[in-house]
Amino acid sequence: MDARDLLRSRPEGLYCPRGDFFIDPVRPVERALVTHGHADHARAGHGAVLATRETLDIMALRYGAGFAGATQEARPGEEIALAGVRVRFHPAGHVLGSAQIAVEAEGMRIVVSGDYKRSRDPTCAAFEPIPCDIFITEATFALPVFVHPPADREIGHLLASVRRFPERTHIVGAYALGKAQRLIALLREAGYEEPVYIHGALARLCAYYESAGVALGPLLPATVEGSDGAPPPGSIVVAPPSALGERWSRRFADPLLGFASGWMRIRQRARQRGVELPLIVSDHADWGELTATIGETGAAEVWITHGREEALARWCELAGIAARPLHLAGYEDEAE
């Protein structure tokens, strides 16, 4: 069987001709399978969407209940037949509800990883390597310079800074879906019992995570409409990265800006954003995890999407694994 009969690139995204569906399409299509709820993968306006329950819920929170003509829940590991093609959703370890999608027909299996990470995360199910013939991997941090340290070490840096500067409000930029909730959960694991103050843009997603059984501890709004009050000095505030450079962040007592992202490995990025406390906490696999995962799948061929495609393709070539960049349009380097 030719792999292109099972999956191929089209302007809308990855397309399965046999099943007549797309995976993470960047334009409205009749049938979409969605790996996770980040906006560059989960778009509104499709005729029908198949995704995990959590991803469907997150899309409804972000786009409204009518974000698609119809929806269907994919349970982890459940086989679903779509016009002679079998698909299964397996945990990707990226954010709550994130999934890899295995597409199979006539003895050939292609696994679409979506976005994934291999490090521990108390807020979502861990990545499961799935044996396959072709593995489609992201390449967000696919350069050897990217080595993500243990996240609890970075949380230790944050708490040490709070102790060192008790007169300053620590405002940490964290992506609204996944990163913010992981950061808060890690703070709780480290023994931080004080309220964490959150930007209003995080409130609904944090509430959803808690409804799904992810304990985040006491959360309070960082600002209250019609009030000039602010969290006391020494507090930790979590906000979307875009809020760090806004007037919003200047209302707090002597704010100290932090940013939780894999991109904080590049110190120039931290300086450009005015970040005093760069925290290397990533929801994507680093270079070593990407290459190890490829080996674990046993794939004879690797297709590479959104990121440092050429570097990872070269590594595959040296390892004796066929590889090709897909050059898919529409997937962004997330603010992480």
Automatic annotation (TrEMBL):
<keyword id="KW-0540">Nuclease</keyword>
<keyword id="KW-0436">Ligase</keyword>
<protein>
    <submittedName>
        <fullName>Ligase-associated DNA damage response exonuclease</fullName>
        <ecNumber>3.1.-.-</ecNumber>
    </submittedName>
</protein>
<dbReference type="GO" id="GO:0016874">
    <property type="term" value="F:ligase activity"/>
</dbReference>
<keyword id="KW-0378">Hydrolase</keyword>
<dbReference type="InterPro" id="IPR036866">
    <property type="entry name" value="RibonucZ/Hydroxyglut_hydro"/>
</dbReference>
<dbReference type="InterPro" id="IPR001279">
    <property type="entry name" value="Metallo-B-lactamas"/>
</dbReference>
<keyword id="KW-0269">Exonuclease</keyword>
<feature type="domain" description="Metallo-beta-lactamase">
    <location>
        <begin position="26"/>
        <end position="127"/>
    </location>
</feature>
<dbReference type="InterPro" id="IPR026360">
    <property type="entry name" value="Xnuc_lig_assoc"/>
</dbReference>
<dbReference type="GO" id="GO:0004527">
    <property type="term" value="F:exonuclease activity"/>
</dbReference>
<dbReference type="InterPro" id="IPR050698">
    <property type="entry name" value="MBL"/>
</dbReference>
<dbReference type="Pfam" id="PF00753">
    <property type="entry name" value="Lactamase_B"/>
</dbReference>
